[in-house]
Automatic annotation (TrEMBL):
It holds the Pfam family Acetyltransf_7. SUPFAM superfamilies: Acyl-CoA N-acyltransferases (Nat). The keyword Heme does not apply. Signal peptide: none annotated. InterPro entries: Acyl_CoA_acyltransferase, GNAT_dom, NSI-like. This is N-acetyltransferase. Keywords: Acyltransferase, Transferase. Gene3D superfamilies: 3.40.630.30. It comes from Deinococcus aetherius. Residues 49-124 form the N-acetyltransferase domain. It comes from the Bacteria.
């Protein structure tokens, strides 16, 4: 990265067009069913999300949905040309920092086939034979 990554929690200025384009760039919109309008609606209903910008360009995104008892990490994406440069790690770290004070536990379904990425953040497989459904206990206390 030539300039520092800029992370924004629940960015009210995030462009639904740019986020839809990011989803398309990672192969999540091959059928064209994701639209900027639907993306804007999704954002308005999301518990927490983090946008990663580099020189004003959206290069990464992560989001979670849920409530104070439990949340599910739904998306963690990085532009293909920015992968393996710490963007996903930074987004995940910022999202977890926020969510640890918001939810008792977190879960995710690993679609990458690389559970080690999530294990670095403390997630553990619900069933070690599949490694897909993973949990993280928050330690949230009042």
């Amino acid at each position: 990265m030539t300039t520092p990554l800029h992370l924004v929690l629940n960015d009210p200025q995030v462009s639904a067009v740019a986020l839809t384009a990011l989803c398309t760039a990672v192969g999540w919109n091959v059928d064209g069913r994701r639209s900027p309008e639907q993306t804007a609606r999704m954002l308005s209903r999301t518990l927490a999300f983090v946008c990663a910008y580099q020189e004003g360009r959206l290069v990464g995104f992560g989001r979670a949905s849920g409530d104070v008892y439990g949340a599910q990490l739904l998306d963690l994406i990085t532009r293909p040309d920015w992968q393996r440069q710490g963007v996903g790690t930074a987004v995940m770290g910022a999202l977890l920092t926020h969510l640890r004070g918001e939810a008792l536990g977190l879960s995710l379904i690993d679609g990458t086939g690389r559970p080690g990425f999530y294990e670095r953040f403390g997630f553990r497989a619900a069933n070690p034979e599949t490694n897909r459904l993973m949990y993280l206990q928050s330690g949230h206390e009042k």
